[in-house]
Amino acid sequence: MTTTAARRTRYLDGLRGLAALQVVLHHTYLTVYPLALGVYPTGLTKLVTSSMMIAGLGVTMFVVLSGYSLSMSAHRHGWTMPDGTKPFLYRRARRLLPAYYVALLISIPLGLTVLSERTGSLWDTSVPFDATDVLGHALLAQDIVGYPYAINHPLWSISMTFHLYLLFPVFAACAVRWGITRVAMWAIVLSTPIAIVAFSDTTAPVLLRQFQFVGEFAAGMATLAIVRDGGAFAWRGRTVHPPWTKLAIACFAVWVIAPANHLNHLPFALGLCCLLVELGTGGLVRLRRALEWRAIAWVGSVSLSLYLIHALVVHAVWLTVLRPAGHGVGHLLTLILLLPLALGASLLAAFLFARFVERPLAPRSAPIVAAAPDQAPRGTP
CA angle 118-122-127, nearest 5°? Predict the structure, then answer.
């Protein structure tokens, strides 16, 4: 990929970097305040750290960005896979699964030995595990077989991500016939109620809760098409140029005030889509420059490695450095000390994992940074 193309997509890496950092900070927070185990902050601590309680936000960002990035080539070729569906799926598997399986192979022996102790922290969701859990993870079916958060709790989303890859050719084929905007709208309408009902039932399978990501993934695909059309789309026989920034602000406001927004991030996802249109068509220049900052873009370039490996690192730092010094769960000082230590160690581990595992195993035909879209100028039909 040319230097110019890399520069044009650097803001996408910036967004991936923010998504990855949100996940790391959230899991670091849950290490100190494992909400699922009944450990909650109180008073001023709860108020100041409330944003760190939000689960699934980074994953939502990854899902939207994945739908957006995967659509770049397919949209250019009329929503068809240039060399067919099987090669497309093979490339996505080669890009995602080798690093995932290495992370899994690292996690299993650690979870059986030095990280096997139940400590009353977030890591208790990962241990102990059994052969069924290993089988589910090995088959990319941890949302169906075994406990999805076993072994290494962030790995639950890898199966979901690959399932979305399988849906991508289906959505693309539907887009040829009905248009991707209509396909995305129907995906949202059909998937969101399933996820909401599943979240209201604690016994519902995790697979049903993941339906929220189906609509968000399709929305990311539709966003790329709108960017390619210069920020416009056809609605009832006429071309519409919405005020994307204002729509983004409205969506984010709805997400903030909506009940149970930590369970379903659809308003946030739609707000992100609106921002992507504005950024992709030349708007929000200052925000784009901020996202293109070299440091945050670098985090985005190693975001997969950071996602796969950070939970092990965060728990290990707390377990070996802070816990022996008396800094246990439920204490603000533990969080203050753990945040910089865990973040720094996780970024170092991600750098090493990307350098020696992810990039060597990635296919040369599938670059780490996606190719840039052919963006039409703002306001063109």
Answer: 40
Secondary structure E strands in the chain: 233-235, 238-240
**How is residue 55 annotated by DSSP?**
-
Alpha-carbon distance of 169 to 100, in angstroms, equals 22
Sign of the CA dihedral running 275, 280, 286, 288: positive
φ and ψ at 310, to 5 degrees? -65, -35
Give residue-wise pLDDT tens across range 285-313. Answer: 999 999 999 999 999 999 999 999 999 99
Burial readout 55-92 (b: 16 or more C-beta within 10 A, e: otherwise) = ebbbbbbbbbbbbbbbbbbbbeeebbbeeeeeebbebb
Q: Where are the domains of the chain?
A: 3-361
Residue that is written with structure tokens 């400590």 in the block: 119
Spatial neighbors of 350 by CB under 8 A, at least 6 apart, are 302, 305, 306, 309, 310
CA gap 57, 41 in Å, rounded: 20
The single residue listed with the structure tokens 């399709």 is 218
Give the pTM: 0.91
Q: Which range, 231-240, 268-277, 364-373, has the best average confidence (pLDDT)?
A: 268-277
Measured CA to CA in angstroms, residue 118 lies from 6, 103, 114 at distances of 44, 21, 11
Going from the C-alpha of 217 to that of each of 40, 110, 118, 262, 324, the distances in angstroms are: 32, 33, 35, 18, 43
Nearest to 69 by CA among 378, 369, 377: 369
Cα 127 from Cα 319, distance rounded (Å): 14
